[in-house]
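INPUT
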Amino acid sequence: MEKLINDFSFGLFFWQILLFVGLLLILRKFAWKPILEAVNNREEGIKNALESAEEAKKEMQNLQADNERILNEARAERDGLLKEARQLKENIIAEAKNEAQTEADKIVAQAQATIASEKKAAIAELKNQVAGISVEIAEKMVRKELSGNDKQLELVESMLEDVTLN
Amino acid sequence: MQKSTVVKILLIFILVFTSTGLFAKETKKEGEGGLKSEIKAFIDHHLQDSHDFTLFSDKEANSHFGFPLPVILWDNGLKVFSSSKFHHGETVAEVDGNFYKLYHSKIYKTDPAGTINYDEHHHATNVKPLDFSITKNVVSMLLIGLLMIFMFGRLAKSYKKNNAIPTGVGRFLEPLVLFVRDEIAIPNIGEKKYKKYMSFLLTIFFFIWFLNLLGMTPLAVNVTGNIAVTFALALLTFLITNLTANKNYWGHIFWMPGVPTFMKVVLAPIELLGVFIKPFSLMIRLYANMTAGHVVLMSIVGMMFLFKSWIGSPLSFGLAFALSLLELLVAALQAYIFTMLSALYFGMANEEAHH
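OUTPUT
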């Protein structure tokens, strides 16, 4: 201990304090502050870059999920549309069929009606002609029958016979 | 199998070497007395600060290679002169009618003949003027300071270009800066308050480490093994700790919460003592570790010259080499421990109450 105190040099102590504090101040201004700041900035930068990469990854995943969803939606929509179209086609065909059927039925009915009326008219005319022809024949026959006096008399007699006088 | 054989052979060799070495030492003890004390004096001298920067010296030719440093004394006015006037303690320097002599690395005021008076414990009783000399240690500190400003200044500048990626020596320094921040400052002080202590922690870490490493060079400076230096560093830690301490810290010292009143009274002086013991331990730890390292290393190097045998000297060399590697580790370790404990004390001073 005595040796330590004896060895102690106040001058050296003085210079040590002076030099060290001076060194500390100079280094703080010109070295430590810029170094620590630069390192800090770099670390912040790396941290930020990592964070933004992570974010980009997440966004990418979101985007992918979105794409998947949109694709699925589109697919569903397409399927729906196709289904609807098929339905529509079937409907149209069925409707057309129905319409055609009713039209055909109508035409047939009309034709039948026309045929019937034509038939009636034809029958009526036929009747008239038959009647006319019959009258003519009868006329001709009568004329021929009654061409002699005796025949006329005969007829009158027959008719008179038919007439019963009560 | 092979490995263990190698180990066995090595062990046998070491045993033989050490025994013959010891034996050689025993037989030559008489003749080695002078060299031994010379080595001891050399080590003692090396551990001390010095007023000139001696690179190496030749005792037989009595020549020194190095350069003198300015001596600054306060003795009824500022006296500045070159340390070459002392001629390595051999002559008395005369400045403005006053006479000074260098004795055991200290400057004493003497008469023109350079007489040193002693008390009964063989301590010099001459007047010691206030010595503000730029000594070898001060020069070393200046050197390291400039080196740090240069290196870290460049590191700071290198961030401005090249996408904030350090280049050159910065690639080595940046992880160390981050180590101090992430392993020392943040765990001990806390995420919120570590920033204001960063400058001190970084400066003290690199300052101590570089000075420790400089001590490992053949320049043979022993700055961190000087009590005045470690005292100054510990004092700064002490001041920063207590000047930035919060209420909670002082509360724990003078009026420990959660214990009976009687215990509070008992604990207060103990805690108060702790405030001073903490930086004191910092001071002694660094001083003792670095001094011990230098003493052991230089003693083993000295053994090389003592043994003078073809087995003992190479063994000493191997030992010195291994110890040098260990000292490199210790250099970093002591810097780490000093910084770590400083951070721990700052953390204590800033702890928030959590009961």
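end of record. Residues 16-30 of chain B have pLDDT under 50 and may be disordered.
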